[in-house]
Amino acid sequence: MRKSASIGIFDSGIGGLSVLREVAALLPHERACYVADTAYCPYGLRPADEVRKRSQSIVRFLLDKSCKLVVVACNTATTAAIDELRRVFPDIPFVGMEPAVKPAAKQSKTRIVGVLATAGTLQSPLFKQSKARHAAGVKLHVVAGNGLVELVEQGREDSPEALALLRTYLQPMLDDNVDELVLGCTHYPFLTDGIEKITQGRMVIVNPAPAVAAQVKRLLEQYNLLNDETTTQPFYEFFATGSVDALAKLQKRHLPMLSGRYSHEKLRIKG
Ligand code: DGL
Predict the structure, then answer these.
(1) In whole angstroms, what is the distance from residue 259 CA to residue 79 CA?
(2) What is the pLDDT of residues 211-259, one digit of tens each?
(3) Using CA atoms, how far apart are residues 32 and 24, in angstroms rounded to an integer?
(4) DSSP state at residue 224
(5) Which residue has a Cα nearest atom 2 of ligand 1?
(6) In the chain, which ranges are E strands?
(7) For a surface tag, which of 23, 52, 220, 223 has the fewest beta carbons within 10 Å of its beta carbon?
């Protein structure tokens, strides 16, 4: 595998940009190839089997693009598909997302931790395992954030509707004395302003994306795959299975630091 190859990243939509943002900040010399499966977004309400099929087809595309590592920048796809992806593609390192229950449980003073994630993630065996393993001694206040992904995809993350919906999910957590809030969906970091407005400093927001970027760096080091071409600026390729214009607009809004070193293209993947 080439050191100068791209890191592959995918999500059901633009949520994975919250992960790419951290990867690009930590590894400024790495190229990336991002797939937003917007024609199938949201994944959170789809059967796990369908999410597994989409994930496999997208990974095949990323491998055709010679990616050297794949980040499953979607909690829902990670819980549904990462075991199968590792089995089907044993030669490629994968990094997945998991709600950060462990650090939140460690840090919580009230011993009550909030988890906001998609219905798919919350129903998955992987989440049940992680609850059993990491949440002993704390109470988890778990809420499915139905409707939030759609608002972020529409660029309405700061709208009155988003704020009202967030309030219905967060007020019961505030009433319950939650002091750590785990963002279990990669779309939710784009709702941070609204979350802060509602929680007023009473909850620490736990976003796993920086830890995921650190894991990407560790794996690239371990496999001797860090890009050693450090003089030219890297290029970022963005693909959307839905509207390319929508992806381009949201990418420029959420990742302004990439400043022109990118392309946007329509992607058709069956299955
Ligand atoms: N961003 C995704 C996640 O982390 C998927 C949300 C969805 O498509 O429902 O779960």
Answers:
(1) 33
(2) 999 999 999 999 999 999 888 889 999 999 999 999 999 999 999 888 7
(3) 9
(4) T
(5) 74
(6) 7-11, 32-36, 69-72, 94-95, 112-117, 139-144, 180-184, 204-206, 236-240, 262-266
(7) 223
Tokens of 108: 């919580």
Q: Are 36 and 243 in contact (CB under 8 A)?
A: no
Q: What is the pLDDT of residues 35-76, one digit of tens each?
A: 999 999 999 989 999 999 999 999 999 999 999 999 999 999
Is the pLDDT reported for residue 87 higher than 70?
A: yes
Domains present along the chain, CATH in parentheses = 7-97+210-266 (3.40.50.1860), 101-207 (3.40.50.1860)
Centre of ligand 1 from the C-alpha of residue 11, in Å: 7
145 three-state secondary structure = coil
41 is an active site residue? no
